[in-house]
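F.,

This is the one I mentioned.
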């Protein structure tokens, strides 16, 4: 049984990913931001829900080390925690950029740093980040400056780590969804056709594939999950 860390597990995408992995027979270590978030999950022998402040590097390092000690091997991590912010350069302060970096990059980096070394020691592992099209396409990112900048760091981090782990059974990838079909997005974009968007379940299936043995030959950094959007 593979053991997978899923951060932000009680979000719209996180719940879909957690359920997909449990259905496929994985053990899931699911992180939530606080103790209240534990209540979002039903009982499952293969689900371990833990409250962790992933913006705190020391607390996150303790979390990773404790789970390595408990389960001996962490096979993969799917890092979903993040935040969103609008804003062109005229309205985006340095503090707003730092906040977005804390949410979208630091929360991934603080898990990845100790976990990547664990995977290097075991010559095996998969780490998957969630990217964003505004970090890839300038025309979409100009009005989402802090968000796009913070997400862009994940792509470069994945490239660096793939170079460092070259020749080993380790890959670090970034899945980039288009607009996700959620109730919030439907309300905020009533004129759009949600049939063109990508569902949380479709993304979850992609993520499960990337952490499974079925993806063992893949070494691409970026996977775009756009549907027709």
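My design for it:
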């Amino acid at each position: 049984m593979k053991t997978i860390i899923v951060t932000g597990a009680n979000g719209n995408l996180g719940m879909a990913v957690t359920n997909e992995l449990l259905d496929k027979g994985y053990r899931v270590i699911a992180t939530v931001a606080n103790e209240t978030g534990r209540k979002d999950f039903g009982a499952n022998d293969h689900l371990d829900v833990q409250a962790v402040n992933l913006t705190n590097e020391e607390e996150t390092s303790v979390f990773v080390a404790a789970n390595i000690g408990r389960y001996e091997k962490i096979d993969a991590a799917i890092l979903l925690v993040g935040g969103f912010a609008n804003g062109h350069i005229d309205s985006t302060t340095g503090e707003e950029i730092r906040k977005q970096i804390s949410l979208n990059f630091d929360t991934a980096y603080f898990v990845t740093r100790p976990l990547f070394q664990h995977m290097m020691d075991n010559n095996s592992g998969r780490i998957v980040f969630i990217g964003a099209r505004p970090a890839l396409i300038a025309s979409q990112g100009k009005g989402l400056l802090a968000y796009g900048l913070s997400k862009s760091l994940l792509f470069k981090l994945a490239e660096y780590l793939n170079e460092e782990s070259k020749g080993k059974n380790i890959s670090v990838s970034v899945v980039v969804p288009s607009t996700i079909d959620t109730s919030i997005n439907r309300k905020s974009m009533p004129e759009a056709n949600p049939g063109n968007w990508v569902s949380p379940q479709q993304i979850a299936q992609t993520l499960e594939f990337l952490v499974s043995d079925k993806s063992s030959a893949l070494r691409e950094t970026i996977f775009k999950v756009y549907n027709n959007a």
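The chain has a mean pLDDT of 96.

Talk soon.
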